[in-house]
Design brief:
Elements (H helix, E strand, L loop, with lengths): L1 H23 L3 E9 L10 E6 L2 E10 L5 E6 L3 E8 L6 E7 L5 E9 L18 E3 L3 E5 L11 H5 L5 E3 L5 E3 L6 E4 L2 E2 L8 H6 L6 E7 L14 E6 L12
Parallel strand pairs: 1-7, 12-15
Antiparallel strand pairs: 1-4, 2-3, 2-5, 5-6, 8-9, 9-14, 10-11, 12-13, 14-15
Amino acid sequence: MKKKFWLLLLPLLYSLTLFAQTNSNGSFSIKGQVVDSLLNETVPYVTLNITKASEPDKSVKRLACDIDGRFETTLAEPGEYVIAMQSVGKVSSQKSFTLNADRKTADLGKLNMEEDRQRLEEVTVVAQKPLVKVEIDKLTYSMEDDPESETNNTLDMLRKVPMVTVDAEDKIQLKGTSNYRIYLNGKPSNMLSSENASDVLKSMPASSVKNIEVITDPGAKYDADGVGGVLLILLLRAMRCRAIPRR
């Protein structure tokens, strides 16, 4: 009887142990907002680079703020970290923070960046390429400069692109609407229609993508009148079809 009791109890104890381990080693997260130190205005699309304090040259995660300067992301393990901020026209800055079992979420609050007023005749700048480039009619997210693209699929990376949202059901929206088109290497693609775009992007390795452009004013060039915008996916190597030799 005792033997049967322990046989029934062991799986329960094992499950409780696993739950405790999972609960203590669960994901960690940080959030905050980047603002101008003088004007107290938000700074949009700042490139953020997170490293461990013990390995400052090894990037743990790279991401970009949204249009309001806000960011939120997860980290796999506890430790002492440094978050570096970089934006055109601003002095690069950084802040240290710690994550542990008692502090799984770090709210960094408002992170200040100063305007770069320094003028030199000749200057050499050593910095990482920004993830986001903003132009008048489009925003470009550099996939090849994001280390997470080596292990994620394109749909996962699309969640990091400003102005694009992907919900829990993998439905894609551009600026809060489903009225958009997806182009591949500058041309419309039948396989990336709104019905099956998520499935296709989920099967596409992010490492094969160079850039994702969010075009807010498509114009006549993209034959996209009446749509809210265009998602342009540029591959590192254009897809080619192998010709079948004639016999």
